Amino acid sequence: MEQAATKSVTINGAQLAYRLVGPANAPLIVTLHGGRGFGDHKSDFQAFLPLSSDYRLLSFDLRGHGRSSRTEPYSFRQLVEDIEGLRRYFVGGEKPCIICGGSFGGFFAQQYAITYPSHVSHLILRGTAPSHHHEAEAIQVLEARIHRAPGLSTGMLRDKIFGQFDSDLEFQLIMYAAAPLYSESFDADIALRRNIDTVFYAKSHNDLYAEPEKLFDYRDSLSTVTAKTLIIVGERDWICPPAQSRVIASLIPDSRLEIIQNANHSVHIEKNAEVIGHIRKHLIQPAELS
């Protein structure tokens, strides 16, 4: 598979780091990474790279994340406008793109599809939730699985991961403690390397957990989504449990839900071939977009 170099583009005053691969005239897929304050585009780019044989794949770091600039403000509204700016830059006019958002990226993927319905032909949601109410369920799951992450407490999840970090170092240490919860095949050595290689920025995390971001709720608006929608979730997803995806599927007209067995929050990595197969078969048909 083609491995594009990382480039940057100025969108709404921020320098956004991105990689773009795939046929020049093919429909554009924009991936939106998870990890509020610590995510970047790399894992999504690798996971969805098989789609680049038929589609243009654009993966980027949100402002205040990864290698993108730390240009404020950090808000759901601003991130949605950055997606729209990227669509205009790479597609132009009123032509729609395909939005693929996971976890935190799934939050504003939904908001973008609600705000700009005609600009999204297809919506792919992975391991996400329609409202902040998923946090209470995640705390319950943690209480049942706390033995898997002995360095983490329910207080750290409630007050830090779902709240405010005091420093970048505290952020990094707590997310390493939480790492065993994210995959059904946890490898401590790999987790340590990834933690060291990750950019942790408490400021963007904290701003994106301040009101009204902390109290996001799309449940009353999802019926307005017109994009052809596929929702994928691992049956063992701990932080955005499958019940949250079922709610989304019940609210978006004609959407399709796939619950992947023996997979956790990183379902697109753990069960990559299965996820790519569902996307190709059930959601994206090149003939529809040509």
TrEMBL record:
GO terms for cellular component: membrane. It comes from the Eukaryota. Pfam families: Abhydrolase_1. One of its GO terms (molecular function) is peptidase activity. GO terms for biological process: proteolysis. Residues 27-271 form the AB hydrolase-1 domain. Keywords: Hydrolase. InterPro entries: AB_hydrolase_1, AB_hydrolase_fold, AB_hydrolase_sf, Peptidase_S33. The keyword Hydrolase applies. Belongs to the peptidase S33 family. This is Alpha/Beta hydrolase protein. It comes from Aspergillus caelatus.
